[in-house]
Amino acid sequence: MNPNPLLGVLFHWLGGLSSASFYVPYKRIRLWSWEIFWLTGGVFSWILAPWIGAFIGSKDLINVLTSVPSHTLLICYLCGAGWGLGGLTFGLTMRYLGLSLGMAVALGLTTVIGTVGPPIFQGTFGELIAKPGSAYTFIGIAVVVLGIVIVALAGNAKEKQLANVAGDASAPDRGEFDLKKGFLIAVFSGVMSSFFAFGLAAGDPIREATAAAGTGPLWVGLPVLCVVLAGGFTTNFLWCLYLILKNKSAGEWGGTLSKVHAGQGKAPLMANYLLAALGGTLWYFQFFFYTMGESQMGKFGFSSWTLHMASIILFSTLWGFALKEWKGTANKTRFMVWLGIGTLIISTVIIGIGNMVAQ
């Protein structure tokens, strides 16, 4: 089957939609602490869904994973763990830099490093630049970063305007703003978050073994996710475990409320578990569709990371409108965010054209 970059863009958009949607079920979970619903959903995101998906979509999964060199599995796993660290520190970036600057630095770095880093380390970057269509692809990457900055500026303006509408008492506390500390954390978060792309690139031997076992091109990336996401699970599990011990919240899994929720009624356990399962599975589907999209990008498969980041931000912003998060903002702010959305859409079209020219 010949690669179809336009189909690849569609798959990446589906992945971005899945990623942007996963937190919607989480928001409906009641009387569970963050670490409880995050780890519960994470079991589905990082363990159950990847292995179920790989068992269904690929052939001879266990033999494939045991046949590849152990250092390949270790690199994929460690990259996943590094990516987990990046995600956990993203919140600190927002805390010390604010939404606008924090998003621009962290997500901008993640996009650029996660896109061009793997081919540089693999020694194929020079070949990629020389290929027809490369100019379109790199222009598209630059346009994505521009779109991230525009959306971040619009989000910052939204925060300020909604705070003013609510009154000075609700205005965000800027006392923790620390440019030096925030910038260092943003760089760490952005660099480490890009490690997922490195983990996927390091999984090429797994893809080759999967293809040799008879798996079709759309599904050869699924076994790689099992290894990379295991690393992400480890990082998140350790952090959640620390919070569970600190907050004494483990009883929430059985319906015992922690001190934070004491006296607020009874937790709807069945609904909470189902919502966590739904949210976690939706989260996994971002990379399920990512691997499918990557298989269709042809010679410029490295551009998949840019398309992934652009799609997440695009659909997250649209969810914000659907949930009326932008209600009450100025026309100028809404124009700015729609400009950012349009910029991200244009970037995906430009990258898709570049991949088509390269075929």
Automatic annotation (TrEMBL):
It comes from the Bacteria. The chain crosses the membrane at residues 6-24, 36-56, 68-90, 97-121, 133-154, 183-202, 222-245, 266-285, 305-323, 335-358. One of its GO terms (molecular function) is symporter activity. The keyword Transmembrane helix applies. InterPro entries: L-rhamnose-proton_sym_RhaT. It holds the Pfam family RhaT. GO terms for cellular component: membrane. Keywords: Cell inner membrane, Cell membrane, Membrane, Sugar transport, Symport, Transmembrane, Transmembrane helix, Transport. This is Sugar:proton symporter.
